[in-house]
Amino acid sequence: MKKVILTGDRPTGRLHVGHYVGSLKERVRLQNTGEYDEIFIMIADAQALTDNADNPEKVRQNILQVALDYLACGLDPNKVHIFIQSMVPQLTELSFYYQNLVTVSRLQRNPTVKSEIQMRNFEASIPVGFFCYPISQAADITAFKATTVPAGEDQKPMIEQCCEIVHKFNSVYGETLVEPQIVLPQNAACLRLPGIDGKAKMSKSLGNCIYLSEEPEEIEKKVKSMFTDPNHLRVQDPGKVEGNPVFIYLDAFCRPEHFAEFWPEYQNLDEVKAHYQRGGLGDMKVKKFLNSVMQAELEPIRTRRKEWEQRLPEVVEILKEGSAYAEKTAAATLDEVRKAMRIDYFENGNLLK
Ligand code: TRP
After folding, report:
1. What does the pLDDT read at residue 204?
2. For the segment 96-150, what is each residue's pLDDT rounded down to a tens digit?
3. pLDDT higher than 90, residue 218
4. In 3-state terms, the chain is what percent helix, strand and coil (to 5)?
5. How high is the pLDDT of residue 201?
6. Which residues line ligand 1 (CB under 6 A)?
7. Integer Cα distance of 60 and 79 in angstroms
8. Roughly what angle, to the nearest 10 degrees, separates helices 111-119 and 133-142?
9. Which of 4, 5, 10, 144 to mutate to test the pocket of ligand 1 (most atoms within 8 A of CB)?
10. Which residues lie in coiled coils (predicted)?
11. Pairing assessment for the beta strands 4-9 and 181-183 based on DSSP bridges
12. Distance 265 CA to ligand 1 centre (A)
């Protein structure tokens, strides 16, 4: 069986370091293994519209921003097809058929949808499209027969629901679709990077993000303002490492070679943690190191982003070609789907049979 990746992001804002460690970095790694026959990276504008129906301009503006973030992280248009969801109308058709294979109560139980409804205060007025987006996401994945979905932990319930739809489709209409697997980052700190304020999730609306496109001074300001252990008041006090955002970020970003370069007093992160826990290591010193680490990681991304910003017509061309290729691929799957469902009426005089 072919090995195919599909994943994507809603274009509702620039991407941040939470996206980076949670999924983008993994995509670039998988791209460079050369083990995948095809890789599709989708800018999910139609999904973004499910909770931004009154603000299509915001979605439109962010399509190029997200594309720039992708290219900046090292996704290579020669190796991956980057495309725009709404440019592949087959996804809508497929969703329409899948809607009949899913119950309302199953959608209501989807934990990600549940928490997003709460976060958006949608309780009394959930847009139907938003409520059904797990179905549309199953269409996104299966239209490309994706075997692998590198995504953040919050996407796990989506993949589970997608597998249920595949299973149902195949058992009702015959073996046609492929069940995907989610690929999560291996490092626990990357699974859910907290915001700089220590809140559970980095999110634009909470204003606690460090963006991939951020300038060095801004990164430094944000790192220095990070929430740490609130009980670590004086340098000599013992500090807590667990749940301390500064250390979670270090777990996510710091590599052994950073010590020789930026903090030769220590050999590795365990030594820093031990000292912090013992007492005698001030937050500012740790933040200074974290800042150096973050600057080193984000500098090449920012530089590449600026280069691509000078070549926007090329970026548009990449999206256009990617979308045309994605449409061709999805159309082939839709032919199979219609055939399996026996709604391919005009093929070979089928309607007369
Ligand atoms: N739900 C994803 C997000 O919030 C975006 C997305 C849409 C997606 N379709 C997908 C992710 C298919 C993985 C696979 O960012």
Report:
1. 81
2. 999 999 999 999 999 998 988 888 888 788 999 999 999 999 999 999 999 999 9
3. yes
4. 60, 5, 35
5. 82
6. 6-10, 44, 47, 137, 140-141, 149, 151, 155
7. 25
8. 130
9. 10
10. none
11. unpaired
12. 43
> Which residue among 47, 51, 70, 192 is best mutated to probe the pocket of ligand 1, counting the most ligand atoms within 8 A of its Cβ?
47
Q: In sequence order, what are the beta bridge partners of 38? A: 4
Quickly count helices (H) and strands (E) in the chain: 17, 5
Rounded to an integer, the average pLDDT of 39-67 is: 97
> Going from the N-terminus, what domains does the chain have, and what CATH number goes with each?
4-192+312-352 (3.40.50.620), 216-307 (1.10.240.10)
In the chain, the percentage of residues whose pLDDT exceeds 90 is 89
Pairing of strands 148-150, 181-183: parallel
CA distance linking residue 42 with residue 24, whole number of Å: 12
What is the 10 CA–ligand 1 centroid distance (Å)? 7
Buried residues in 77-112 as b, exposed as e (16+ CB within 10 A)? beebbbbbbbbbebbebbbebbeebbeeeebeebeb
Measured from the Cβ of residue 8, the count of other Cβ atoms closer than 10 Å reads 25
> How many other C-beta atoms lie within 10 A of the C-beta of residue 214?
20
pTM: 0.95
**Reported confidence tier of residue 235, pLDDT bands at 50, 70, 90:** very high
Mean pLDDT of the chain: 95
CA 224/CA 117 separation, integer angstroms: 33
* Ligand 1, pocket-test mutation among 5, 6, 7, most atoms within 8 A of CB: 7
Tell the burial category of 341 from Cβ atoms under 10 Å away from its Cβ (0-12, 13-18, 19+): middle
Rounded Cα distance between 11 and 85, Å, is: 11
